[in-house]
Amino acid sequence: MKTILFHGPSGSGKDTQVDLLVDKYEFENIGTGEMFRTMYKEADLEAIKAYSYWSKGKFVPNDLVYSMLNRWIEKFDEQYNWAFVSVVREVGQIPMFDRLLKSHNRTLDYFVHFTLSEQAAIERMSLRTVCPYCDTTYHSIYKVEKVKGYCDKCGTKLIQREDDQPEKIKSRLEEYNRTISPILEVYRKRGVLIEIDATPSIEAIHKEVVTKLGL
Ligand SMILES: [Zn+2]
User: Fold this and answer.
1) Neighbours of ion ligand 1 (CB under 5 A)
2) Model confidence over 81-107: pLDDT tens digits?
3) 134: in domain
4) What DSSP line would sit under 136-148, residue for residue?
5) Domains in the chain, number
6) Which helix (H) or strand (E) holds 53?
7) CA of 193 to the centre of ligand 1 (A)
8) Backbone phi, then psi, for 138, in 5-degree steps?
9) Which residues bind Zn(2+) (predicted)?
């Protein structure tokens, strides 16, 4: 059983890569996004507390995140490989993550970091449009609409999300790099860091992941 932590900026396609591993290599996908949503729906008291932060776009305190994660993890199969996604977002969470793994008799095999240049991030995301009515997304290289500027499904005029504008992408990536670099440093020293360029195609990146993880 392998235990892998995946990280990457938005637009790096890390979720797609983890989904491929789940489909082909018996991985459990363990992330805080689904945890917050599911536990909140279940009216979990800590999730309700966490919601008061995340609904305002604020960081949920480390203790609260890990208290929830320690319970959330119980639902996953111990016999499977575990893929954690973005569960260490700041240095203070590293010892918490270590303890969580130890309590399940696991150690981290690899920290896989998907890297994306500013140019690649902008190229990938600023070419994305979305239908404000049915939420279908389009991309002017990878998924082109039939009538330029209008939704294939419902004919609504497509828009660009505010988050997908180049200036927003740039500042988001800078912020990401600033927060992730001390974390990368820790895992590099431990000798478990693998960096993978997220610019090539989904299939090419998947092949590299499989090779580097020895699957
Ligand atoms: Zn539409």
Assistant:
1) 131, 133-134, 151, 153-154, 156
2) 999 999 999 999 999 999 999 999 999
3) no
4) -EEETTTB--SST
5) 1
6) helix 45-54
7) 41
8) -130, 160
9) 131, 134, 151, 154
Contact criterion met (CB below 8 Å) for 30 and 82: yes
Position 82, amino acid: W
Contact criterion met (CB below 8 Å) for 138 and 30: no
Token representation of residue 125: 């995301």
Q: By residue range, what is the domain housing residue 189?
A: 3-117+167-213
- φ, ψ dihedrals at 9, nearest 5°: -70, 165
CA distances from 98 to 36, 88, 104, 120, 149 (A): 21, 10, 10, 33, 48
Q: What is the pTM of this model?
A: 0.87
Question: What separation in Å is there between the alpha carbon of 156 and the centre of ligand 1?
Answer: 5
CATH number for the domain that contains residue 45: 3.40.50.300
Q: Do the domain assignments include residue 110?
A: yes
